[in-house]
């Protein structure tokens, strides 16, 4: 896991790979068809970027950011306007 | 000569906090409700992982399940939102303050019906939060009508049989892009605790659908969400054991 923790999944009845998306969905539907329900960690994708990373957000709470980091100065605005001329 | 015995050392976790700090108010749910067992496991997981409750935000919508954040982590931040709207409130909270550990508690109605649109977009965005569905297949707060996760053929106490296809929230979450999807049963303490601990180490949306029988409206013969049915039809895909980064591995 991201923080260095380790997740161990001991296989019981079948060779279950929780990183296999198609197999996870198949297992859910097959067990439901038998009137049973599969339990455990059904699917995991640890490396998928989360929403904060996708948005390129800073680590600090937004409310604690100083003005100079959230309000671009006049020079930045001028530069932006110049680039659009 | 008077002998004074030293007071026993108070039990604390790895960050020096006592278990009482992880508790909440006294539950007002029915005795035997599966939701209470889930709250207990949440308390255990956060205590054992050494997470400061002050760094946590609890979020919920409306329903029996959504009352339950009042019964754990009493010193955490909390937001009890409008019915089915917990995902957008949670998204806003973690975007504004990414240092918070967000845990959302919802129900099968709050998620599968009223909030299905919000649920869909939370899953596809992979918002970093734990999303627990306390799934009893009925609307317990309004006398036990079928919810969207009720199985075909399941019977209400009144004899009414459900003939609508259920929504499988786990299959849906995987399809939508959730990066951690698990299912458990409120009566399986060991498995649920391991899953909760693992979800706390995950970065992204961790969906945990927990079958949680409603002892008042959906625990009778003919129900597919009862304690008896769950015990007989639970099929683990594997044994889950979780070793946090701060513990050494020991071989039993």
How much of the sequence lies in strands of chain A comes to 15-25%
- Distance from N terminus to C terminus of chain B (CA atoms, Å) equals 47 Å
Mean pLDDT of chain B: 92
Oligomer: heterodimer
What is the ordering of alpha helices and beta strands of chain B? HEHEHEHHEEEHEHEHEE
Tell the overall outline of chain B.
globular
Share of helical residues of chain B: 25-40%
Helices of chain A, by number, come to 4
Describe this structure in words.
The complex is a heterodimer of chains A (85) and B (252). Chain A has helices spanning 21-33, 51-54, 67-70, 74-84, and strands at 6-11, 37-44. By secondary structure, chain A is an alpha+beta fold. The radius of gyration of chain A is 23 Å and the shape is elongated. Chain B has 8 helices and 10 strands. Chain B has helices at 34-48, 64-67, 86-96, 108-114, 116-125, 169-176, 189-200, 227-233, and strands at residues 56-60, 77-80, 101-107, 129-135, 138-139, 145-146, 180-185, 205-211, 234-236, 238-243. In chain B, strand 5 and strand 6 (145-146) form a beta hairpin. The termini of chain B are far apart. The model of chain B has no long low-confidence stretch (mean pLDDT 92). At the A-B interface, strand 1, helix 1, strand 2 and helix 2 of A face helix 3, helix 6, strand 7, helix 7 and strand 9 of B. Strand 2 of chain A pairs parallel with strand 9 of chain B.
